Automatic annotation (TrEMBL):
Lineage, highest ranks first: Eukaryota, Sar, Stramenopiles, Ochrophyta, Pelagophyceae
Superkingdom assignment: Eukaryota
TPR repeats: 89-122
Protein name: Uncharacterized protein
Originating species: Chrysophaeum taylorii
NCBIfam families: TPR_END_plus
Keywords: TPR repeat
Length: 163
């Protein structure tokens, strides 16, 4: 994870190693946020999205089929790991916070919208997030766009729109 690298004739510098799992990269990204290294944090969040996480699937690794009915040969299957849906939602939310802290409002809103489009639905957290102070109004519009309404609200508001 975080370590010091010594090269002949050079001072020690902090290096962040490549990570093997989503959780390890995310933990390092959050640590970078606490250190105020927002660019480093964003890079690690991006990396985390490409690493094995809680999501998994099974894929065929050969085109062989069983001589009995042509079924897939189980030994020719492998498990594939990737960032789960909830991990991706949380990562994009965290990225939105980092972009907002950096003052990059457009990127913050894009990351927040990506989190919402993936199903992030903690709307109270979004409205209370101190990092979103600069994008509060636009974040509210995104919430309105993604937050499900009851059928009664939808019927009432649709009638108001028609008038």
């Amino acid at each position: 994870m975080i370590g010091a690298a010594l090269a002949p004739g050079r001072p020690a510098t902090r290096l962040y190693a490549r990570f093997a799992t989503f959780d390890a990269a995310e933990e390092a990204a959050l640590a970078k946020c606490q250190d105020g290294d927002y660019d480093g944090a964003l890079a690690l969040f991006e990396e985390a999205l490409t690493l094995p996480g809680d999501g998994y699937d099974v894929r065929r690794v050969s085109a062989k089929t069983s001589p009995i009915n042509g079924a897939v040969v189980p030994r020719d299957l492998e498990e594939v790991r990737f960032a789960s849906l909830s991990q991706r939602q949380t990562t994009f939310y965290n990225m939105a916070c980092v972009y907002a802290k950096k003052g990059d409002e457009v990127e913050a809103l894009e990351a927040l919208e990506k989190a919402l489009s993936l199903g992030f639905d903690d709307y109270d957290l979004i409205t209370q997030e101190e990092d979103f102070e600069s994008i509060k109004q636009d974040a509210g519009k995104l919430i309105d766009q993604y937050k499900p309404r009851s059928w009664v609200d939808a019927l009432f508001f649709d009638k108001l729109k028609r008038k």
